Structure formats: C-alpha cells, structure tokens
Amino acid sequence: MPYTDNMYRTLLYPMRGWLIGAGLIIGVSCLAAPDPISIKSIAQVEQSSQSQGRETTKLIPADRVVSGDTVIYTLEVRNTAAASLRRPVVTYAIPAHMTYMPESAVGPGTEVTYSIDAGRSFDTPENLRVQEPGGQLRAAAAADYTHIRWQLKNALKGNSVAFVRFRARMK
Length: 171
Fold this sequence. Notes:
Number of domains: 2
Structural class: mainly beta
Number of strands: 10
Strand content: 35-45%
Radius of gyration: 22 Å
Largest sheet: 5 strands, antiparallel
CATH architecture of the largest domain: Sandwich
CATH class of the largest domain: Mainly Beta
Shape: flat
C-alpha cells in the first residue's frame, strides 16, 4: 500500500528536529497523492427489437462492432476520496479507430471542450482551427477531435459518481 501524506507526517513529525538539524528536510507536501478520480468506460450499442407491434431500443455491450456502427461511451467518473472535489476535470481520448459524432458529448452540469492536438490544448468547437497542408486554416470538424474534456461546474462529493457520455462511429 503506498504511503499517504498523513502517513508520512505521522512517521516524520517526531524526527523533524533531527532531519532539519541534519539538513535533510523532506517536503511532505511535494509527495504525489493518488488521484481520487477513477474513470470506468462503458462501450455500448443500441439494439432495436419489435414486440407486439412496438419497437423498443436498449443498450447492450459493444462486444462486436463493424465499420459504420455507432458506439455510445458512458464514463463513470468516481470520486474515491471522502472529501469533495471542487470542479473536477475529466479528459478522455477518442479511441483511434473511432470518429467522434458531432454534438454528442453530454454530462449534466458540465462544460465540454475538445482537443485536436492529442490533448495538449482544449477549446470549444467554434474556436478550433486545423492547418491544411498548404498552410491555410479551416474550422475543425468533429472527425478532427482527438480528446474530449468535461469540466464539472459543481463539486463532486466524496465517494460519489457522475456520468458523462459521447457517441463515436467505427471507422
């Protein structure tokens, strides 16, 4: 089990005078804490069926998809910490074999932005520009997106879950 900041404080606090006197001060706050956000991706497809003259649609696991199929990705965003996280950010790469479907990224109480440069920068669709081989800039299309980012507008309470979703088509 990795040590937490509190464990280090408990271990090092009694020795602080000795460590400082020896010139061996250790910055406990610099120690990396584990990320309290865990993300579980669920890939599903819609399956339609007819029963008694009514058509019903349900989501089933995307076990086998072929070119042209639309996959619905639901991300289960879990705060594993006991404390609330103020406005957490969730970033997800669009799978390489998929093309993002325009305006399909949703999440209650979120601001959605996109990346066209492998997640180095994010912006809203109207501000994204792609440089053509000749040097001209054009508006980015949904097919140019590489990553999606959701910023929750509110805190995510400790030990709670939020869901975000998007659709992508198999190339």
